[in-house]
Amino acid sequence: MVRWWSMRLWGAHLLGLVCVSVAVGMGAWQYDAWQARRDAERVDLTHAEPVAMTDLIGPDDPFPTAGLGRPVELRGTFLPEGTVLVSGRTGAKGADGDWLVTPITVGDADAPAVPVVRGWVPAGTDLASLPAPPTGEVDLLGWLQPPEGSGQADDDPRDDVLPELRIADLVQRVDQDLYGAYVVAEEPLAADAAAGVDGATLDQLPEASRFTGLRNILYAIEWWVFAAFAAFLWFRYVRDATSERDLEEADAEAGEDAVVRSDP
After folding, report:
1. Taking Cα atoms as reference points, which of 197, 171, 193 lies closest to residue 79?
2. pTM for the whole structure
3. pLDDT-based confidence at 29, cuts 50/70/90?
4. Burial of 51 by CB count in 10 Å (0-12 exposed, 13-18 middle, 19+ buried)?
5. What pLDDT is recorded for position 258?
6. Which regions of the chain does DSSP assign to beta strands (E)?
């Protein structure tokens, strides 16, 4: 009787293992390429040509989906009384820290304002030790982001450290209306950089197109289908080989029995 682990079938087992392993590996490689292309496009969208912020959103408008992560430019005046730290932010090197945030008017000094993430500082930094924002009108480039609001509780509402960048928390600190968005500055202001403030990283990136890397994911599926087909062929071959061998042995035994019975 031939078993599945018989040496006669080792060649079939080896060939099946090689075919399935290669097909699965190639499918995984194409899947990784699909993920990499989508991640690259999400980042590339943040390097598009900046547009005026007012072209994407107005003071009373909801956040536009197409505005997520878009580079914007604006000119206005910082409102120093609205400066806060937003805790629980990871720096470029993975360290825990805070965002330094100050609203800036979008237009003249009385216009509605938008919170600006001026940069990142290590956890435990005292807000009083950081430089005040510059006075007068300032030109700013940054990435547009939707406001946060998961409902995380503020352990101490009286201090200047917030758990999230919520518009409702900031609007109580300034006299102007606030946009339903915030901006992450592309680079720290000169005075901030001199004081050790690092650039902040984006928490929310724009989504890649659904067709990005489509060929890669289709190739991955094709390779995995081939792997399943190869496994099926291996199974059928081994099953048939063992069944045929068992049938031949059974026929041989039956023939021997017949010969023995026919002997006088």
Report:
1. 171
2. 0.64
3. confident
4. middle
5. 46
6. 51-52, 71-77, 84-90, 96-105, 113-122, 137-145, 161-162, 182-185
